[in-house]
Amino acid sequence: MTNLGTDQNPLLVAIVGSGPSGFYAAEALIKSEVKVKVDVLERLPSPFGLVRSGVAPDHQKLKQAIKLYEKIAESTDFNLIANVTVGTDISVKELRDAYHAIIFTCGAESDRKLGVPGEDLKGSYTATEFVGWYNGHPDYRDREFDLSHDIAVIIGQGNVAADVSRILSKTIDELKHTDIAQHALDALAESKIKEIHVIGRRGPAQAKFTPKELREFGELSDCEPVVLEQDLLLNPESEKELEEKSNISSKKIYDLFCEFSKREPDTAKSKKCFFSFLMSPKELIGDTTLERIIFEKNKLSGESFKQSARGTGETIELETGILFRSIGYRGIPVEGVPFNESWGTIPNDKGRVTDSENNVVDQLYTAGWIKRGPSGIIGTNRACSVETVECLIQDLEKLNSSTKKSGAKAIYSKLDIKSIRHINFEDWKKVDTSEIELGEVKDKPREKYTSIHEMLSVIK
Ligand code: NAP
Question: What superfamily does domain 11-109+330-422 belong to in CATH?
Answer without folding.
Answer: NAD(P)-binding Rossmann-like Domain (3.40.50.720)
